[in-house]
Design a protein that fits this description.
The chain is α/β, with parallel strands linked by helices. It has helices spanning 32-44, 58-70, 79-88, 96-105, 122-154, 159-188, 191-201, 208-220, 226-232, 258-274, 276-287, 292-313; strands at residues 2-9, 13-17, 22-26, 48-53, 73-76, 237-238, 241-242, 246-247, 251-252.
Length: 329
């Protein structure tokens, strides 16, 4: 049996609900007050504790690391899932106390396999920091380029401002390149990571940036199976059918990492041009009348799963040629 504790994490505090009363503790580096609360719970109750909270970036990282250090089981709930659950139970207000109670109630949906001590890889954490920084620069770069395009069409931008924005774009490009080089240095410092990177990059069409994102995914979720990896990338199918009144074309869920999907999409676009296996898959589906976007999603899924197989088996890619029909049935 478990005793569940719902925790709403914010920058300043941990709002806690244990099924009986509300409590609040400072979200400080050592979680001293919260640790005393947990120790009291352990002394008074025979049930094993399970902490339920949402990932809130750096704000929840302290709690996550605490759970690893203290060997505490958790259920880290996807924010979109908890939002749907809050609506389902009729929550109209959104406060720290309400959210903590909602997360406690989420325990009704949990099974034993859902509750586990979090896993954290130092390598994954470091790679994640580089990837997030790189993604931030890409977002800024895209925003400035869109702004420039709109301003130039309007004809309202001055030459000085245009030069300033172009200079900033050059700086962003230089920072992106520096982050990429530092990431590669981090990977090359570990022979096992370097070998895994080389194996993933051995797939024609998969470049260094693609491989870094895939390597990060595999390090962060070492126990994930094929179905779970597909879901983490948001490439799992979403079926919407209800009797005869609702028949929609099947789509992917898009509930996973949009950044990973973007990387896989670029790899798929390159792969169907430079990889005979992906080109064979693309042509075979195209001959069946499938839409191009549907085919690219299938190629994205293949790249993800083949990369994972190479990572797990520690081997390079072996191209199987254009005859891909045996894999379509």
């Amino acid at each position: 049996m478990y005793q569940y504790i719902g925790i709403d994490v914010s920058k300043q505090s941990l709002q806690v609900y244990d099924g009986e009363k509300d409590s609040s503790f400072p979200n400080e580096p050592n979680l001293k007050a919260f640790h005393q609360f947990i120790q009291n719970k352990k002394e008074k109750n025979a049930e094993e504790l399970v902490l339920i909270f949402e990932p809130t970036g750096v704000y929840s990282s302290i709690l996550r690391k605490y759970c690893i250090r203290e060997n505490l089981k958790t259920k880290i709930v996807n924010p979109s899932q908890s939002a749907y659950f809050a609506k389902a139970i009729g929550n109209r207000s959104k406060t720290d106390k309400v959210d903590a109670k909602m997360l406690y109630s989420f325990s009704a949906l949990l099974h034993d396999k859902d509750c586990r001590v979090p896993h954290e890889s130092e390598q994954a954490s470091q790679l994640g920091a580089y990837i997030n920084s790189y993604a931030l620069l890409v977002t800024n770069e895209t925003g400035i380029k869109n702004h420039l395009r709109a301003a130039e069409q309007e004809g309202s931008i001055t030459p000085d401002l245009l030069a300033l924005l172009h200079t900033h774009l050059e700086q962003l490009e230089a920072m992106k390149e520096e982050i990429l080089q530092q990431t590669l240095v981090l990977i090359q410092a570990d022979p096992s990571l370097q070998r895994a990177m080389e194996n993933i990059c051995s797939i024609p069409g998969v470049g260094k940036i693609n491989a870094i994102h895939l390597l990060y995914l595999f390090l962060k979720y070492p126990e994930a199976n094929r179905a779970q990896l597909t879901a983490l990338a948001g490439l799992d199918p979403m079926i919407r059918e209800s009797g005869t009144s609702l028949h929609h074309r099947m789509k992917i869920s898009k509930r996973g990492s949009h950044l990973l999907r973007r990387v896989l999409y670029c790899a798929a676009m390159s792969g169907v041009q430079h990889n005979a296996e992906w080109k064979g898959l693309y042509d075979a589906f195209l001959a069946r009348g499938k839409q191009r976007q549907v085919i690219l999603v299938a190629v994205m899924r293949k790249i993800l799963l083949v990369s994972h197989a190479l990572y797990k088996e520690n081997r390079p890619y072996e191209e199987r040629g254009k005859n891909y029909k045996k894999n379509l049935n």
